[in-house]
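Students often ask why inverse folding is considered easier than folding. One informal answer: many sequences map to the same fold, so there is more than one right answer. In these notes we will look at a single instance of the problem. The structure comes first.
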Protein backbone atom coordinates (compact mmCIF):
# COMPACT_ATOMS: atom_id res chain seq x y z
CA UNK A 1 0.00 0.00 0.00
CA UNK A 2 1.37 3.41 -0.97
CA UNK A 3 2.19 5.71 1.88
CA UNK A 4 0.08 8.85 2.16
CA UNK A 5 1.77 12.12 1.24
CA UNK A 6 1.09 14.82 3.87
CA UNK A 7 -0.61 18.02 2.65
CA UNK A 8 2.40 20.16 3.64
CA UNK A 9 4.48 18.09 1.20
CA UNK A 10 1.90 17.72 -1.59
CA UNK A 11 1.02 21.44 -1.70
CA UNK A 12 3.47 24.31 -1.77
CA UNK A 13 1.91 27.61 -0.74
CA UNK A 14 3.57 30.74 -2.17
CA UNK A 15 1.99 34.10 -1.35
CA UNK A 16 -1.39 32.46 -0.74
CA UNK A 17 -1.34 30.43 -3.97
CA UNK A 18 -1.29 26.64 -3.48
CA UNK A 19 0.71 24.62 -6.03
CA UNK A 20 -0.16 20.91 -6.22
CA UNK A 21 2.83 18.73 -7.12
CA UNK A 22 2.78 15.05 -8.11
CA UNK A 23 6.08 14.11 -6.51
CA UNK A 24 5.75 10.43 -7.38
CA UNK A 25 6.08 11.30 -11.07
CA UNK A 26 9.26 13.34 -10.57
CA UNK A 27 12.18 11.19 -11.70
CA UNK A 28 15.80 12.43 -11.52
CA UNK A 29 16.33 14.98 -14.30
CA UNK A 30 12.66 16.02 -14.46
CA UNK A 31 11.61 19.60 -13.74
CA UNK A 32 8.55 21.78 -13.34
CA UNK A 33 7.91 25.51 -13.62
CA UNK A 34 6.03 27.56 -11.03
CA UNK A 35 4.62 30.87 -12.26
CA UNK A 36 5.29 33.02 -9.21
CA UNK A 37 6.95 36.20 -8.05
CA UNK A 38 8.61 34.29 -5.21
CA UNK A 39 12.37 33.96 -5.33
CA UNK A 40 14.16 30.67 -5.82
CA UNK A 41 15.35 30.93 -2.21
CA UNK A 42 11.75 31.16 -0.96
CA UNK A 43 10.70 28.19 -3.09
CA UNK A 44 13.70 26.18 -1.86
CA UNK A 45 12.55 26.68 1.74
CA UNK A 46 9.09 25.35 0.86
CA UNK A 47 10.62 22.33 -0.89
CA UNK A 48 12.50 21.10 2.18
CA UNK A 49 9.57 19.03 3.45
CA UNK A 50 9.31 17.20 0.12
CA UNK A 51 13.06 16.58 0.02
CA UNK A 52 12.94 15.04 3.50
CA UNK A 53 9.78 13.03 2.90
CA UNK A 54 10.90 11.50 -0.42
CA UNK A 55 14.65 11.59 0.32
CA UNK A 56 15.36 13.47 -2.92
CA UNK A 57 17.47 16.47 -3.93
CA UNK A 58 15.85 19.46 -5.63
CA UNK A 59 17.28 22.67 -7.08
CA UNK A 60 15.37 25.86 -7.88
CA UNK A 61 16.35 28.82 -10.08
CA UNK A 62 14.53 32.00 -11.07
CA UNK A 63 13.64 32.08 -14.75
CA UNK A 64 11.53 33.84 -17.33
CA UNK A 65 9.89 31.27 -19.60
CA UNK A 66 7.37 31.95 -22.36
CA UNK A 67 6.96 35.48 -21.04
CA UNK A 68 6.23 34.41 -17.45
CA UNK A 69 8.46 35.07 -14.47
CA UNK A 70 8.82 32.17 -12.08
CA UNK A 71 10.96 29.42 -10.65
CA UNK A 72 12.01 26.19 -12.34
CA UNK A 73 12.59 23.27 -10.00
CA UNK A 74 14.73 20.28 -11.01
CA UNK A 75 14.99 16.93 -9.30
CA UNK A 76 18.72 16.25 -9.15
CA UNK A 77 18.70 12.92 -7.30
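Output (designed amino acids):
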Amino acid sequence: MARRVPDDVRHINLYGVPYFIRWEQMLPGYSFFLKTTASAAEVTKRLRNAEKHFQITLRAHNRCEFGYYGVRVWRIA
